[in-house]
Specification:
This protein is an alpha/beta fold and 513 residues long. The chain is built from 17 helices and 24 strands. The chain has three domains: 235 residues, Rossmann fold (3-Layer(aba) Sandwich), CATH 3.40.50; 181 residues, P-loop containing nucleotide triphosphate hydrolases (Rossmann fold), CATH 3.40.50.300; 81 residues, no CATH class. The protein has a six-stranded mixed sheet with strand order 6-9-10-3-11-12, with helices on both faces. β13 and β14 form a beta hairpin.
Amino acid sequence: MAAENVIEMLHITKEFPGIIANDDITLQLRRGEIHALLGENGAGKSTLMSVLFGLYQPEAGTIKKDGREVKIDDPNDATALGIGMVHQHFKLIDVFTVLDNIILGAETTRAGFLQKKQARAKVEALSQRYGLKVDLDAKVEDITVGMQQRVEILKMLYRDNEILIFDEPTAVLTPQEIDELMATMKEFAKEGKSILFISHKLNEIMAVSDRVTVLRKGKCIGTVDTKDTDKQALSDMMVGRSVQLEVKKAPAVPGEVVLSLRDFCVPSKAHKRDAVDHVSFDVRAGEILCIAGIDGNGQTELIHGLTGLEKSSGGTAVLCGKDISHASIRRRGSDMSHIPEDRHKHGLVLDLTLEQNMVLQRFREPRFQHGGFIDKGAAREYAQRLIEQYDVRSGQGPVTVARSMSGGNQQKAIIARELDREKSLVVAVQPTRGLDVGAIEHIHSQLVAERDKGRAVLLVSLELDEVMNLSDRILVMYEGEIVGEFDPKQTDVQELGLYMAGAKRMEKGGRPA
């Protein structure tokens, strides 16, 4: 007898201006299974899950829960049906504590008073049971993104949800946190919870899912049993062509030093000690230098200090022969492109159009001005060229509002804008976060092309496959310090992992300590 379907989404169609995001899609989720949803950026995965969670209303189609047709008008209806969702961009309130975020909207009260003690006991029990350790009294703004994701998962468990939707859950996690999450998901499935898991990462889909449904350009291409397929077949289904899964590049030919950091320090917001503690390294023209490390070990602060988003507290940063340690963000940007870690906070103005975002740093250039005003025609033409070159999928082209685009296409837009600026140094932080294999292949080839044009590329990545594939040199950062330097051809993921976890470190001379 076939396993029973706990959720059936039948012939779902959802449209936005200029685009059919979901075109007659049928998806069935069995009880106790992990069902992966795979597709390119903008294929309609998040839209379909947002329909199930009540954030969008479909133009056509029906949803059934346990064989009975249901109407899901908003997330409260979804919660009442036992459906929970961890969104790609977390829905947390930064200034609230972890505990307050978890219970918000589902508070236990007695005679109008909040019963926090009971809530805390329930959350602590869930946290222990599933190995989701969090500091309940910390403010969300002070914890790492990996920790924030645990908060989102605990929010679902606190509401006793039985159908769990994970939208790109590993996009911001370290390899260790990904392994923990996979184990947790398997534990959920064993208990009879049903999981819908959106991902671009073929390794994870192969490791954890029972079945995979592939979407392409809003249509359902098919559903396959994971055990009967492989990564290459899935990537070809998803993109509609054969995809190169390995980075092709010639050996680096490093030139002169473009960026030099000496004893560079950046203060921590959460602790009294510096988040970046006397870091020194050089990045040369014609090489990709990668900073690897577990999230929360100072990489974010290092890049913020370098780009001017935070003030450094000591040491020097010299870019193209000029000391930029105390320069303005605009002055630093004259020689530096920056693909930021947080695309919403530092990458885009979400309520502006794509064309406005594309010229954000360039509108002062003569070609984008006319009589002191922005030349809209020139901006539109420029945006259109980048949209085509980088395959940025948007319903209304250059006039699409950035907020309405999928996360992956927002990322492509930022990368297009920053690489087109042709600066001496490219700072790329998590550049392929949330991108599909086709887009990753394109972005990797673009970064290698930048290197081959003689630019210096400083890459910060939590993806060890990306680190090993793309970099010419690797530095490992642990607790604010550089603890190791490696040639990717002479190391492996296991060795890097030991340095990333703090189990090993190199002495100043480059020997293991």
